[in-house]
Amino acid sequence: MNVSEERVEARGNKISYTHIDVGSNVVCFMFSGIGYLYDKPLLYYATMKMLEHGIDVVHVHYHFKSELLKKSFAKKCQDMMNVIQPVLDAVLADQAYVRCLFLGKSIGTIPIAGALVNQEKFNDAPIILLTPLITYDEVFMNLLECRHQGLLAIGDKDRFYDADRVKQLKRTHLTIEVIHNADHSLNVGTFDTAVSITALARVMRSLDAVIQKFKLQG
């Protein structure tokens, strides 16, 4: 396994990313939340799960602040894609990946739902959405209309949770996991460590099932 810290220049900015290479022809691009970075439990163990299945991982590093959420959806999505697209282009040009997956946490689900699901070359890419912002109309409608397979995990105490929208999203090709009493980090209760760890394990089992199905289709 080779772990390299890389940079790509775009629009006069240097964008950094971590490339974890296990010699695969499949790669998972990951997009973190604001303050919920790749060392946090959901993203750390999602990374481990990908590596367990022999899938390369790319962590895209960006430094957006909460002010991003005040912008229009189109502007939020564009600002994020200005960082993400150059990394995608660089990685896919540099190595002969034949398939890819996308995984986002919180705001990291915006570029997936707002742009990547609409790119024809990624029609077959599974999407993993951890605590997506489904109260945003654009996120919800794009997910409702897309034909991508994958996973959506959210807590029913998350401020971005909407029971009716989740019910509608169950008609898509996504596996839906609703964690009872879980917040935006999928932590359960105030200090209920054991139940929170159980919830994390549940999400990882669902992720494992998505990866297994994806590999069978390859």
Automatic annotation (TrEMBL):
All residue ranges annotated as the KANL3/Tex30 alpha/beta hydrolase-like domain in the record: 33-211
Cited InterPro entries? AB_hydrolase_fold (IPR029058), KANL3/Tex30_Abhydrolase (IPR046879), UCP033634 (IPR017018)
Which residues are the signal sequence here?
A: none
Q: Which domain of life is it from?
A: Bacteria
Q: What's the name of the protein?
A: KANL3/Tex30 alpha/beta hydrolase-like domain-containing protein
Q: Which species?
A: Sporolactobacillus inulinus CASD
Q: What is the lineage of its organism?
A: Bacteria, Bacillati, Bacillota, Bacilli, Bacillales
